[in-house]
Design a protein that fits this description.
The complex is a heterodimer of chains A (about 150) and B (about 750). Chain A has helices at about 20-30, 80-95, 100-115, 120-130, 140-150; strands spanning about 1-5, 10-15, 50, 55, 70. Chain A is of the alpha+beta class and about 150 residues long. Chain A has a five-stranded mixed beta sheet, sandwiched between helices. The longest helix of chain A has 15 residues, at about 140-150. Chain A starts with a strand and ends with a helix. Chain B is globular. The chains are: A alpha+beta (about 150), B alpha+beta (about 750). Bound molecules: FE2/S2 (inorganic) cluster (2 copies). One FE2/S2 (inorganic) cluster binds next to loops of chain A.
Chain lengths: ~150, ~750
Amino acid sequence: MQYRLNVNGTEHSVEVDPDTPLLWVLRDAMNLKGTKYGCGAGICGACTVHMDGEPVRSCLMTVSSLGTSKITTIEGIAKTPAGRRVQEAWLKVDVMQCGYCQPGQIMEATALLSHNAAPSDGDITTAMDSHICRCGTYTRIRQAIKLAAAKEA
Amino acid sequence: MLPTELQRVIEGVKAVHPTRRTVLVASAAAGGALMVGWYAFAKDQTRDDGKLNAFVTIAPDNTITIMAKNPEVGQGAKTALAMMIAEELDADWSHVLIAQADLDTTVFKGQYAGGSMMTPENYLPMRQVGAATRALLVKAAAKKWSVAESECTTSKSVVYHGASHKSARYGELAAAASRFEAPDAKTLVLKDPKTFTIIGEPTVGIDSARLVKGAPLYGIDVTLPGMLYAVFQKCPVFGGKVRNANLDAIKKMPGVKAAFVIEGGSKEVFEAEGGTVSSGLLPGVAVVATSWWQADKARKALQVVWDEGPYATTSTESLAKEAEALFLKPATLSLRNTGDADSALKIAAKTVEARYDYPFVAHVTLEPQNCTARVANGKAELWAPTQLPESGRGLVAHTLGMDVKDIIVHMTRSGGGFGRRLMNDYMVEAAWISKTVGAPVKLVWSRADDIGHDFYRPGGWHQIKAGLDKDGKPVAWKHHFVSFGKDKKFASCAGMSPDSYPAGRIPNMIYDASLIQTGIPMGPLRAPGENALVWVFQSFIDELAHAAGKDPMEFQLELLGKDEKLPGRGDGLSTGRSRGVLEKVRQMSGWGRALPPRTGLGVAFAYCHLGYAAEVAEVSVAKDGVLTIHKIWSAVDVGRQIVNPMGAENQCQGGIVDALSHALNQKITFANGRTVQTNFDSHMPVTMHQVPPMEIAFVLSDNSPTGLGEPVFPPVIPAVTNAIFAATGKRVRSLPIDEKTLAV
Ligand code: FES
Ligand code: FES
């Protein structure tokens, strides 16, 4: 089936089966490899993208369910002020170990900061707790979110 | 197949002797081999391309490209090894680029990630590479200016001649410098560490700027023209084979290009260490399609009739029953027998007895196992996230009947390693599937494949009895370990060293073992062996402290006794360095301070993979058993120099978090010969709400720098469970911690 998708501000046309999860459309049909596969079941958060500005698990969204929603991926998040701040903070703190979870973490953190400019420790935990970092960079994730929030203030 | 290379990585410490004297001797001996990198190129007198040796190329614009010879799995090798070279090269770090080398055993040595060996194996050789490269640039400058080399100095990618006020950027000199012979290693003078400007500076990872933007650096991101996607369904029961499958139906599914049975590799590949590890091409059904989603969807429709083999009845319960039965029988293996433990126990003033057990655990790297392969016309090219590429290449060569010379291995970034990617089963699977379909293939395991076909950290059971004399000093220790293996040989990473601490500190000791044979694959997981054994030993030492009525910290320090090296792995455990980290963590944590009710501090330490770590945990336990870990303090001694404090702290935090996942959450169970867990939900690494504040301090001792991947992990779990005892009087003797058992 042919689908028209709005990804990172551009219209794309892809030819995929209707039940293909957005994750695999992005990665394999559109060659946007920044969105990661970790569990395929909504548990790990590695595949997080924004759908009309809200964080969603792209492994759980079928392409046929997307309609006209605007999708933003890690490749496009720098276009938002919050996204850019979060990426800069991530780099400054050097959150990364293997780095594989980080696109998903950055997407979630960006969504958090766009709703809540000065999140408390509790807010950060609540927002980020559904993301797995197998390498254990949680302390730096928290630190980077606080840094990004401070920059806004 | 457990190649000797892998065994060496798991054991880590056996190959390198870390005293200052022996490191120098060892690196001089290894020097010839390690130095091939800069001799091989320098001998070519005709080049002027700025390629000074296998590691360093300098462009006219002053950009310095340094080759990363080792795989990057998140341990920071790519950045840290280049920092070692750049330091002695006097490079301007802001102009350094790092390129990932392919596997090339004719040029590079030690291209692997494991055993916390990156730093100890490379610290001197990489610095020598930098110094040798610098010498070439100085020589080029001296020649150009007709001055003595000894009068030239270097700083930030510039050579200076002070007397004549001349200077030249490395970029201007590199073409001329690339024609010179490499200097004799003996003539190289390395810097005084006090003058370091790169080593020891907190340095952001070289790929970090690209990673935050989602750059496709991982194995799973590789794309080749004309590439197909594959999934591979192996028998869920370990040791099973395919009888038949509905291949015709599968072939008709959307996008499917091929579906076929793979019989599996040769017998010698299957029959490995302890008779339990199968690290090769296992039997199964491959499905190849034009997209991964289609391949995986077709796989879900697969109906395979399996011959489930001899282990189809294995379950967690059946293993526990076997262990129970083995405890009732005399042990079959004697690991250590010093003094006369039985007699000493009879006359001891007090005896303490306990049983400990811990489960199997899976690695669950966040990037599932994958490999992209192009096999055609007798040649193979592989893109793989692997910790041990040489062994992967060997496995592919062996299984496909190829010569290693015809196989190219590109090391991609790995989304985590933790020991899982020391095994290269996914490499040989991808190669086989590509060869069969005659096209480039990307094989990606699903998470269920990954959890169901791991080389698990083995579970184990321990029965220990110890005796104290009237002063509360331990005089006897009798230990029966029920583990896995065959014919008196431990399965991979299921062993226990006869020198396990407190060996050498208690006069009468018996370490015995009995083995269960099983088909479950086992292998190295971060701090192999120690990740569970240290919990058992350090918990039981804590039990003895309480039985003796002594403060656990004091008891530990007393037991360590006088300063010496105890015989054992690596260079042997230094009681002095152990005391050093314990004393540091005692001070950091404010050990001994008054605490609220149901709150406690626990301490533990370990010597592991050449490093020393001591940890204190502060916990409180609510009446209903809910555990809160308030903080973890960690004192770490990995020698006199931390190469990249930025990465080092991250590694330490990672080690602590990893251990907390074992302590609090993770447990693999088996039923009907297969793994029960199929995704993270039932085998969860800890997430943010379970991660306490951590404080890490490095104790800089006058010892050669060693690695940080493993040593921080082992003491974490016993520090937490010892703290739980201090808070509640309840001893955790089974992992993961079950909060229900902590309720009042
Ligand atoms: S891959 Fe989507 S949540 Fe894990
Ligand atoms: S950095 Fe490796 S999974 Fe998060």
